[in-house]
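not sure who needs this but someone in the group chat was asking about Arylesterase from Hymenobacter profundi so here u go. i didnt clean anything up, its just raw.
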Amino acid sequence: MQNIIFFGDSLTAGYQLPGSAAFPSLIQQRINTLSLPYKTFNYGVSGETSAGGRQRISSVLARQPVDVFVLALGANDGLRGIPPRNTMQNLQFILDEVSRSYPQARRVLAGLEFPFDLGPLGGHHLGAYATEFKALFRTLAERNQLAFVPFLLQGVLGHRNLNLPDGVHPNAQGQKILAENVWEVLEGVVT
């Protein structure tokens, strides 16, 4: 049996949903159906920034061997306007720690886009931030030769019927789409 670690924030944790509705659990169901020798671990922490993940990574890596590591952090950095270079440095640190601890681990990165429609705000600096934020994930994926999920929230962001009333966190139906988005890339890593 090999271990898949999902390391992220509330999107991974399945904020306000039962654990079985979070996308890592849905991916475990898919894995079980396909009789693949993997066990998923959901290390999503609501409110986590990339800096928080950087502080937490060593304790997570010490808990069990890592065969596949799925990194899905950064949404809270974007919401807080943290400079993309800081987010990139923190995510690179996390990826490096995984490689140092488990050199054979296959790594997957989930990309994000700035979660707001910036048009009505009229600030060109916000548009520049959104562009830079989105680009940091692809840059990291290419630099580290990672399997890459271009946009974790593809098909969910901005769809009221797929999100909780806060309009930010996916509901159970939205989590199913996140699972599909991740599985589209993860399937090639685990089969």
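also The two ends are 13 Å apart (CA to CA). if thats useful
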